[in-house]
Design a protein that fits this description.
This protein is 44% helix and 18% strand. It is an alpha/beta fold and 245 residues long. It has one domain: 3-Layer(aba) Sandwich (Rossmann fold). A seven-stranded parallel beta sheet has the order 3-2-1-4-5-6-7, sandwiched between helices. Strand 5, helix 5 and strand 6 form a beta-alpha-beta unit. It is globular, with a radius of gyration of 17 Å. The two termini are 35 Å apart.
Length: 245
């Protein structure tokens, strides 16, 4: 939240219609300026309008987090023109199942770029700013694929394992410098239009709290950001009560 009159920004990389958007709304609700990114800025406009209509501050950016120059410019622009980045949430998805017998080198590399390399680029750039201030929160959205590799998910599992390792390494280096780095394992179907349309039987479990509510995920991200440094959580698992694990 804002300290005195000092403005603070929450950078949400991958502010989609469900989890990422809910996270942006929650941080804006708590007084931070939500800076949301997607590949297409037009898709962000409904989210930006909703946040502003509720009294919050928000800006949308078209950004390809796989491109180093674009990431550097994004962070520089926000820090110069909007506010210091107090929290960064990396929420880019790359879940594309495929048999290892049919997987292509191009797609394998692209999934790694999306889920891992882009996380490194954004994490590095915001960490530089946060370390100079001696404070900040960096949260990476992970998945069960980062804990175990299931059949037909070699690309996704490899990328998410690497993301988890990146988060651990950054936490061990940056924690003593005042930066809280966390990795969130989101395990289960999320209340999205994709789940509703593609997996109606799973979506029917919504009334039983059988799928994840994006607002509840966002609440946990806010909780991580609020934790005092004598009791920081590095890894948090979020899953519905009926989910097998």
């Amino acid at each position: 939240m804002e300290t005195g009159t000092t403005k603070q920004a929450a950078l949400i990389i991958g502010a989609g219609d469900a989890t990422g958007g809910a996270i942006a709304k929650r941080f804006a609700q708590e007084g931070l300026i939500a800076c949301a990114t997607r590949r297409s800025v037009d898709k962000l406009q409904p989210l930006i309008d909703e946040i502003r209509a509720a009294g919050g501050q928000a800006y949308g950016f078209a950004s390809d987090a796989r491109k180093e120059e674009a990431v550097i410019k994004l962070v520089d622009d926000i820090e110069r023109d909007i506010a210091p980045i107090e929290v960064m949430v990396f929420n880019i998805g790359a879940n594309v199942p495929c048999s290892i017998l049919e997987e292509t080198a191009r797609k394998y590399f692209k999934i790694w770029e999306m889920a891992t390399f882009s996380a490194f680029l954004v994490g590095r750039e915001v960490a530089k700013r946060m370390v100079a201030r001696g404070r900040g929160t960096i949260i990476f959205t992970g998945a069960t694929a980062g804990l175990r590799g299931s059949a037909n998910f070699a690309s996704f599992a490899g990328a998410k394992h690497a993301l988890r390792a990146l988060a651990q390494s950054m936490a061990r280096e940056l924690g003593p410098l005042g930066i809280h780095v966390a990795h969130v394992v989101v395990d289960g179907a999320i209340d999205t239009a994709f789940i509703r349309d593609s997996f109606p039987e799973r979506y029917a479990l919504k009334d039983q709290d059988g799928i994840l509510n994006p607002d509840h995920i966002a609440g946990n991200y806010w909780h991580l950001h609020q934790q005092p440094r004598d009791a920081w959580t590095h890894e948090l698992d979020l899953r519905p009560w009926i989910e097998r694990w």
